[in-house]
Amino acid sequence: xxxxxxxxxxxxxxxxxxxxxYAMIPLIQREIESHGWLSASQxxxxxxxxxMTPGPIAVNSATFVGYKAAGFWGGLVATIGVAIPSLxxxxxxxxxxxxxxxxxxxKMVFYGIRPVIVGLIFAAAIFVAxxxxxxxxxxxxxxxxxxxxxxxIDFKSIFIFALTLIGLIKFKINPxxxxxxxxxxxxxxxx
Length: 191
Description:
Helix 1 runs antiparallel to helix 2 and helix 1 packs across helix 4 (about 55-100). The longest helix is centred in the middle third of the chain and has 44 residues, at about 55-100. The chain is globular, with a radius of gyration of 19 Å. The chain has 2 domains: about 1-135, no CATH class; about 135-190, no CATH class. Helix content is about 80%, strand content about 0%. By secondary structure, it is mainly alpha-helical. The chain has 8 helices and no strands.
């Protein structure tokens, strides 16, 4: 049963996601939450791993989520599910796209899709930031927040994030080196 759920969920994600893997993150998150396959922090960890491994983030995320939810076969089924819609759509669309690429309706459709893609990527960034910068397991009731508002913030993550921005923007350090250094800093801070 879980294999059918994974297949259906990732076909739906692949079919209704425009804008690449980052735009898929809110949809994957919603499916994971509705089925209870992973916690929010596990999902953020999977996004980080999917970023670091070669290949598209959407396929990597599907593979890791499926594997975490149902083992090897779950990973395979989720990967196939997320890839099927793209394969079918590209085969159908490529046949007609170049013929109608300058048609006004085609231009209007892409004009409408662009802001949605930006919104989906922004929603993914907010989700990852919430899960990363705030401590997990703290009861977020108003009394707790007013008594000790700083207890909900994960300062270690904010420190690593700030170092990453400084390294990327000010010192123009290679992103691959930033990922390796951030992992080492994270290891040192949490030990």
